[in-house]
Design goal:
The protein is α/β, with parallel strands linked by helices. Helix content is 48%, strand content 13%. The radius of gyration is 16 Å and the shape is globular.
């Protein structure tokens, strides 16, 4: 923990914040573990919630609704297929879905985070074999359109 606290201290000197992203197959496998790490390390560290990792680690929308907003540094929005692949590493690398296209209920996720008071930056992160096969502009347009749709539905409901 001392080494990580040192990294956070050095980052603060440059007005940067350190984030930790949990991965279901890692020593920081879920939101609870990431939050506990951030609380242990202390100042200048936050959690990066990737909704694919949150869903595949067994996380719920209710957990997001109850999160301490001060501990969340960033949110990466994407979606998951109804059934996980046999190989999660392969799925995370090429099998993610556009926000709103899967079972993680991106609209409910946004509403839960907003309701909890999370003000961290939200971005789209979709690693998809399908999107990778498209021209960059077309892939970017699909991601932007999916984000606009999810944000519009979250705002309307």
């Amino acid at each position: 923990m001392e080494l990580l606290a040192g990294v956070c201290e050095r980052a603060a000197a440059h007005e940067l914040r350190v984030t930790v992203e949990f991965l279901p197959w890692s020593p920081i496998p879920n939101l609870t573990a990431a939050v506990n790490l951030v609380k242990t390390v202390g100042a200048n560290m936050g959690v990066n919630i990737d909704t694919w990792h949150h869903c595949r680690s067994g996380g719920t929308v209710q957990q997001l609704a109850e999160v301490d907003p001060n501990l969340i540094a960033a949110v990466q929005l994407n979606d998951v297929a109804a059934e996980p692949w046999d190989n999660l590493l392969e799925e995370t690398a090429v099998g993610r879905l556009l926000p709103g296209a899967g079972r993680s209920d991106s609209v409910a996720v946004l509403k839960a985070l907003h309701g909890a008071g999370v003000t961290a930056a939200i971005n789209v992160e979709v690693f998809s074999g399908e999107l990778m096969s498209l021209p960059a502009e077309e892939a970017a347009q699909k991601m932007a359109d999916s984000m606009r749709t999810v944000f519009a539905h979250a705002a309307a409901s």
